[in-house]
Records
---
Amino acid sequence: MINRPYILVIVLGILLIVASCSGVKHLEEGQTFYGGGEVVFATKRDFKKKNEVKRELETLITPTPNTKVLGSRPKVWFYHLAGEPKKEKGFKYWMRTKLGAPPVLMEDVDIYRTQSLIESRIKNEGVFQSRVEVKTKTKHHETTVDYITYLSRPYRYDSIYLPEGDGKLEKAIRGLKEGMVFKKGDRYDLNDLEDERLRLERELKNSGFYFFQDDYILFEADSTVGDRQVDVYMTIKKETPENAKRTYTLGEINVFANYDFAGTSQANVSDTIKVDSVNYYSDNKEFRPKAITDHIKLRKGNIYTNEDEEVTIDRLLQLDVFKFVNVDIEEMSDDQLKTDIYLTPFKKKSIRFEVQGVSKSNAFIGPNFNAAFRNRNAFGGAELYELSLNTGYEIQVGGNQNQSNGGALNSYSVGIQNTLTIPRFITPFNIDFHSFKYVPQTLIKAGFAMQKRSNFFTSYTANLGYGFRWNETPTRRHELFPIDIDFIQLSSTSDEFEQLLNDNPFLARSYAEQYILGTSYSFYYNSQGKTGRDRRTSNYYFNGNIDISGNLMQLGQSLLNSSSEEPYEVLGYPYSQFARADIDFRYYLRLDEQNKIATRVIAGIGYAFGNSISLPYSKSFASGGSSSLRAFRARSVGPGTFEPDTSQVFIDQIGDIKLEGNIEYRFEIVGAFKGAVFLDAGNIWTMREEEERPGGKFNFSDFYKQLAIGTGFGFRFDADFFVVRLDLGYPLRDPAIETPANTRQSDRNPSELSKIVYNIAIGYPF
């Protein structure tokens, strides 16, 4: 047992080690570390977008100072510890270049160059009378720089003049006036002029001006017209070629369906098939022509638009059967374009084997072996067929695991899954998807899985699904499964598990053999799909799900056979009837390249009715574990103030309602080694009062008093393509009735360290 004085000694020792990493002893006389720079506005009045302008100006400040952790510079320490390696390989070289980084000194900083860049950028923002002064501050062997910026009142747009003339191009530009990036009264900004040129290029290319380029537009600004006002004159370059001033329609369109870069796979004229005015060339008939041409928006006789070209390329790539898609457009005549589309297919069939390290939300980790067969063009219409086999062994890990009654809980599983993905809607009624920017998918799946939990039970699950997946935008995705059927059966249950079910009727009902005849819908939003200037410091993720089961079957059976006794059955087994909804909302705030704040809120509710008195186990909610409340064992929290028997190895608390919130500060330690400090809170509840789990029913008046709260520290090794995570959680508040001291029965120990729950997982928790 470790008492608090020893803990204090350990903490002080760690702080001394950290302090020794400062690297100060390697500084020569007069040298100081560079601590970074900041733009400071010296103005009496506030102005719009002040923080945005400040962030933009601070991107000009270079170099980036060394990363600091608790006042130390661990990368500099590793750099000096490694010394000068004799060759560009080996451990010393790896330590110096990967873990370490050279010290960034104040003498390396060209502050006057940065000062000049900031002044120029401010003038581009419309503040023509401005100046920047530099002030340095040195403290504890570190020098920081303030770029004090004096701002005057900015110039604003007054009159805006567009190109004159009767030419087709001039008329088209004047017709696009309504969508201008800037307008009279806006603050002058050079970026506005650049954005307007890009907008005009995009809009004109979508109006048939194929050869137009943004640099054919010139802007002249006159700042002498009035009190801090600017007149802007837009003109067309005299050197603009004549073909950039004309609109074009699409003439001949050719598709080469099995092209290689050597040009040896182009088909001859005798292999040509005309489909919807498109000439389709293929010498091996691998694809049905219409399955490809349906995704081509470019059509003979239409006015050329850049949007149609981009959608064509995107949709052909989304079929996931072509490695490369190249569209070559050239001038046929003064008003027509010839289009050649070259497609290079992937290899049709492939087999993949992989070994994975798996981490689940219920704290099970272990190796998995997967084998998958893929046919990228199963029936000639770019359909993807996948047959996957998987098997794995898992063991539940986490702090304070009870080792009695057989030790830690483990399981192994075997499964087979068939999935057919068809790149179009397959429905009883016609849905026109040709105008979609993204290729919709119809999914048909069937599978079988077996899982054995040692000393408890073996479960068998068969599933059958038919549904659709489609993207609305780069950030919005939908999934709808009108048919989503699962059949669940238990066998080989142990006496201990049978006794557990007898003692907990609610759990017994959740594990009962049954069908789940479901219909489900999911919506996803992820702002991280945005690119370019839309990529923001703040990002959002949202997932909402609705799941309804058994309603149509129960309605049909009740109408056809009103005398049938409940529960209704299918093929001798009952089926579940419930409605369930949940949301997962996340917000990410990027402070800088090394620091981020991540938050998440989960809320869900489910209600069993009609043919059922409880939700199936797989549809119920649980709390606690490596991706949930990390200060508590997986599925051990709740419901409500109920305290499960922690002497049992098998703890599986489930409920009908869930509310959970997480906040995590993520930071870089050294290289791929990251750290995090987190706070988690949440619980689950039941919809109905249960005798076997008193205190579990949700009550709106005091549910917030029943939240379990935990905090902790995490270590992560982030190698980009995978993340290994260790989180140490400490419970701050446990809502269980029998624990007034806010500690679980198994944790009632005077040692503070004995309450720590460790979670080993793969990937970030959210």
Note: The first strand starts at residue 33 and ends at 41.
---
Amino acid sequence: MHQPEQPILRDIVLIGGGHSHVGVLKRFAMKPEPGVRLTVICRDTHTPYSGMLPGYIAGHYSYDEVHIDLRRLAEFAGARFFSDEAVNIDRANQKVICRGRPPVPYDLLSINIGSTPQVSRVPGAEQHAVPVKPIYQFNDRWQQLLDRVTHHPGITRVAVVGGGAGGVELVLAMQYRLTRELQAMGRNPEELVFDLYTRDEKILPTHNQKVRNHFHQALAMGEINLYTNAEVTAVDAGRLHTEDGYWHEADEVVWVTSAGGAAWLREAGLELDDNGFIQVRDTLQSMNDTKIFAAGDIATQVNHPREKAGVFAVRQGRPLADNLRRAVLGQPLKPYRPQKKWLALISTGNQHAVASRGGFYAAGDWVWRWKDSIDRRFMAKFNELPPMDEQAMAPTRPNRVPLEKDEQEQAISAIAMRCGGCGAKVGATVLSRALSTLKPVERDEVLVGLHAPDDAAVVKIPAGKAAVHTIDFFRAFIDDPYVFGKIAANHALGDVFAMGAEAQTATAVATVPQGLESKVEDTVYQMMTGALEVLNDANCTLVGGHTGEGKELALGFAVNGLLDENDTALTKGGLQPGQVLLLTKPIGTGTLFAALPQLKIKGRWIDAALASMCVSNRLAAQCLREYGSTACTDLTGFGLLGHLVEMTRASGVDAELNLEVLPLLEGAEETVAAGVLSSLQPANVRLRRAIKDQDQWVDHPRYPLLFDPQTAGGLLASVPADQADACVAALHSLGYPHTRIIGRILPEGDALEPIHLR
């Protein structure tokens, strides 16, 4: 979580994680601009490098070797990473409309989302073909196709549509990989038949004849059938139709042609070419909106049209970054002229490649090694990041962003000593605008709530109900206020659910960094929108709160719950000998988020941890009660051992834990092994004296995770042994797939230590 010393003055938003945008992130990482914040909106955390994709398909590279970790790179650059997908642009209000989160405001916007297959233009292709582009989605489709082909009995005919470099390279890579997959299974590789279709009279039409001849030979050696002047006009189950009127058998159809711009760009009103690509000037700005830039395949430079090739996206990274910086600083932009000729290194499936540039041609294993070296050096720039030194990374230059007069006053006020009276409240106008569109769920018991002008809420306690009260508050550990709001609300509700109660009302308390009113307003709106989604889902009414200014973003809730007076609350003191212990979510959030700022993580580890923290404990608590649970708590800052010790002491029992079956978040063992621990870990480790024979366990790789503090963790509960398996199955079906039986409850022994490990 980055905490800039200067207030945020301008937002540059990057849609997509393509080759140009990774260059922008790296360039701003090396030279941050004070007062300027970058935000990346991308559905996928790991973005593939197109130059290495055929090598990955062929099996020469691993997944991580050909993917750039966007979340990690964004962290390095001090940028926010929003895991979502842009679906439109509100240009009038300068906001990006996203599929699953509130709109994201921008001062400058850049689009680098690659191209989209236009399969809808060919009847049946959308239903029966596997499109290669957008390439960031191709890995899932490739893995599914790989599974289908290797499990398909008998002959499998694979058709690749597209005779450019991408189609030729892909069919050779697939043939190489799938042949070896069948051989490894003891099957005859002759069960595979490959066909390549192109509407042109020759393959690789933009390359010289020597290059084409080499690939004709490669296709022939691989016994790949080539169909030229064969435009595919329809696709059906198990076959495809060509313009000459013939139907051809095809068990799998892979589409590597007819790509265009995403459909939503037309709704945004940007000037597009005939294929739906954004038309840009030499400065890479949109022709009809100078606040919007575009690069890579999605962009067409009007004055310098070029083939859609990854080399141009890579080369555009630097001029795009520099012009974004100049634009935000109010400086003149510089034109970018792409090269007319470029070097293409095209692989042939095996570790052999062809070099092509204009009339130049070369081929051999040495060209593959050359290509491999170039590709690995490129990837190293974005994946082999130096350790972060916050002091060295902090911009030392004064703010250079030009501001309007009222913005200057707000910026000066944000930097200067602020009034601390009244809890350093955020201004009433800003707050009212941010909260005006929030719609808390309605409950009959709320007599005076959020949108009333009063300073306190009025809530009835229904007859026959007992009130349950809890409070939680913590600072943000991620740069996405929307997701942070969801997690903070889940964390606060956990105590109420763990006691078997329903949530009734919540009162928020938030701290927001000072800055321009528009930036503060958006932060509050994003954060409270996320929180309200969780509260409303729990039928918990947000009735009010307090929002103050401070150095760090933070959020908490005082939650009131209701419990039937005649029901027994699920307390920590209800453990009974003979019961088993269940844990409903994996652990490891403490070490993972300690590793994030140190860049000792993979982005997908953080994705999985955030997804886990956004899962409510409400249904799990109801399920546990139905299966006879007598004790329950939610895992938070004290960690698994701390909470279990509290439960055993209150219940007068011992407990046995099985380290081998603990559900762990992906990556948690790796970060703990690397010595990355939460700042709360030392305090939790003091409870190690509660472990019997703890010296025998200190070297176990999972031992440190007993003390790992959790945020919005799962429920730790006891259930009767004869109900445990059914309870676990029910929890899995309710959306808690990591639920495990992790131990059992023992009678209190003579030893002082209540926790036994095995």
Note: The first strand starts at residue 10 and ends at 15.
---
Amino acid sequence: MDAAAVRERAADLPTSPGVYQFEDSDGSVLYVGKAVDLRSRVRSYADPRGERIRRMVERAARVDTAVTDTETQALLLEANLIKRHQPRYNVRLKDDKSYPLVQLTDHQFPRIEVTRDPDPDATVYGPYTQMKRVETVVKALRETYGLRGCSDHKFQGRDRPCLDYEMGLCTAPCTGEIDEPGYTADVESVKRFFEGETGVLADPLRDAMETAAADQEFERAANLRDRLEAVEAFHGGGGEAVHAGEREERAVDVLGVAISGGDATVARLHSADGKLVDRERHALAAPEGEDRVAAVLSAFLTQYYAERDLPDALLLSERPDDPDVTAWLEAEGVAVRVPGAGREATLVDLALKNARSRDAGRDGLAALRDALSLDRRPRRIEGFDVSHAGGKAVVGSDVTFVDGEAAKSDYRRKRLTDENDDYANMRRLVAWRAERAVEGRDDRPDPDLLLIDGGEGQLGAAQDALAETGWDVPVVALAKAEELVVTPEGVQRWPDDAAHLHVLQRVRDEAHRFAVAYHQQVRDEVSTPLDDVEGVGPELRKRLLRRFGSVEGLREASREELASVEGVGPSTAERVDRAL
């Protein structure tokens, strides 16, 4: 888009808060932003301030927008869209967390539900910050107005109301317990609540609370009081009265940012009741400009705390550059500090050291890129291995490393067809991963590199699988015996102390460990002669197999050795010995 096209598009936009998306000619999202005034903000892109944003505008073919009720909603919706589309020109955190929405489906009798992926035709409200608060409010709405929460499958063809009706959560339109006009009136009341009329729900709750207290049903009154507080805070009425100084800071997160070239690392230390209990690091693409650390913090805070509890306090190396982020945190009762001295400053320094320690891993990835002639640094590597015992209990592992560290939430494993053929097993494993990726059934991003545990044969099998499925991802293998790196172009021997070799070794060794662990689990679950022995249950069977390694090992063991296993005893040992 040129400057004239941007100004023309901006002239059609409202002056309301909302989010905007620059998209290319294929509909891919290039950039997502938020605005207090959509018209003014989009118009500013006619004269981009940075070279990176100028390139983005040149590539863009259109601008799409969504209006929100508040600036905070725009902030959270921006974070959701960045997570969903992973736009190339945003500072983005690669995880699957997003802020919750509430939708009323487009049905004759609409369903209400909390979701992160709304239906295209639904009436959607949000996003909201706290999942627990949203769930509490939706439950209160259902108890008050009886909107259904069931799936279409459960709704259709019912002869009698379900348990939700008996519990007072639904008025059962499925069986005609309420007619369509009555149900529609209840839906309209729910819509009025989400559009800001808090009393539609708060007033019935307050009346019920007072009635319960008068009847000396104090536990019910307390539950209704808690629900009323959540309802009143839902639209900001209760949250604005919360100040950081009025709450005990039991949970504190410390964030430090390190930037190297176009990459940024955020280290998070978590303190609970004054003790450090967790530390982790996250990689983001670094933005352009002078206040890069502040920009990274603004992006990280809104994206990371989707579906995660906000702490009581945040200790930061710098203030976020986005005042809307600071205002949002303050409204949620989070104290934000940039300490200059004392213990808190020491914690921030520790977070900075953790962030900077990622540089060594990056150096190894950069060297790996150069050694394998890859297009970019392989930030995301998936490692594959197969484990079995003579073709029995065949399993495969698929582990993921991001920026040189294990990302265990992205590990996967696969039970394979029993066959004593390492090459065929590897081909099946890689084909399984590739087919899921090509068909869009795997929720993980595509890796920058596949690493196969094995030699030329295993690599060839993996290449066959990739060719059959059409998944275009670089692949190499690492053979254990001599630590040779096998590539489609040939075999390489790297120095033993090479950082890029160590990166591959860590991935290969973890893939092997994960495969062996799963194989042992599957092996312990297969049928054995112990299954019919009286007094030998699943747990005892596992202990016996772990102690003696296999059924053959059990056969060779004496009754005295069998009886020495915890939970066996002489009589059970005799029955096991006879069965074997």
Note: The longest strand covers residues 275-285.
